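[audit] Reproducing an earlier prediction to check determinism. Same input, same settings, fresh worker. If the tokens differ from the archived copy the diff job will pick it up downstream; this log only records the rerun itself.
[audit] input (169 residues):
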Amino acid sequence: MRFVKISAKVERRIEELRQSDKTGKSIAQKADSIIESLKSGAFLDYTENTGAFTKYGEKRLKGCRKYDFGNGYRLITLQKDTMILIPFIGTHDECDRWLEKNNRSKHIAEGKGTMVYVPETAAKMMDTDDELCYEADDMCMDEPPLDLDEQILRTVFCGIVNGAKKRAM
């Protein structure tokens, strides 16, 4: 099974950033974009670029990646086999302290948060029976429409298109 686990602390921090100034909103959008990309299965192909990594990477924890959002903010992810944990988001200094605190840990406490199942590939999902697709469409019609602005939609769709192009190569 493949999963992405988003720490409750990360979810709260992104929400705080979303409620703050223009810079915070931009960082929250970048974090959402990377998380959506990871949820789509991009981490299964390590060559897939889901966002801007930090210049020198991260060697303190095995399977660790740091994403650079600019303005001094980073997102830390940990990958073990086919599961990815998103344990921390913060400023450069906060991330550095978190990594120092956890660099000798064999096990990072996952805590509460959201666990998302990641489909094996988007291609396999597209090959499903048409009847199942119609049932899924009917279920979605019962939900109220999401209030998404154009910037969020552009970010999400760019990530989807780029991911599909890279998988096709």
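[audit] rerun output stored. Observation attached for the diff report: The first helix runs from residue 8 to 19.
[audit] end
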